Amino acid sequence: MSIRHGHKAYYDFVKFPRGFNKTGDFTLKEADLLTHFGHTLVALEQRQLQPLNSEELHFVDVVSGLTEPQTLLEKAWLKYIKLSRCHRAFHGLCGSKRSLSEPVVESDSDNDDYFGD
Questions:
Q1: Do the beta carbons of residue 53 and residue 2 sit within 8 Å?
Q2: Domain limits for position 61
Q3: Residue 114 within a domain
Q4: What b/e readout covers 89-112, taking b as 16+ CB neighbours within 10 angstroms?
Q5: Residues 10-37: pLDDT tens digits?
Q6: Cα–Cα distance for residue pair 42/115, rounded to 1 Å
Q7: Euclidean distance between CA atoms 22 and 67, whole angstroms
Q8: Cα separation of the two ends of the chain
Q9: What InterPro entries does the database record attribute to this sequence (predicted)?
Q10: Domains: count for the chain
Q11: Cβ distance 20 to 31 under 8 Å?
């Protein structure tokens, strides 16, 4: 791989406070790649760093939407972008198919005696 390593380990404590490898969203290899190359990839994406070789130039084309990702690093970065910058849907553990506009019907049962009424 000829993309430059970052000058230090990359972490996103805002979106992934426990680290990339503890979220369950990334494989161990993807988390490792994001940690080692993240600073370089951010700089390339934001045009703060000029591509030095064809692999870095291809990465810039991928994040610009001009071409499809080919390497695991490019795919991991696109996954990171999707998970960190796009709205995530929240799915609660309990759900109901009942519409909010439907009235709640309480039944008359013998449970009133339980509460001492």
A1: yes
A2: 20-85
A3: no
A4: eeeeeeeeeeeeeeeeeeeeeeee
A5: 999 888 888 898 888 999 999 999 999 9
A6: 61
A7: 30
A8: 75
A9: DUF413
A10: 1
A11: yes
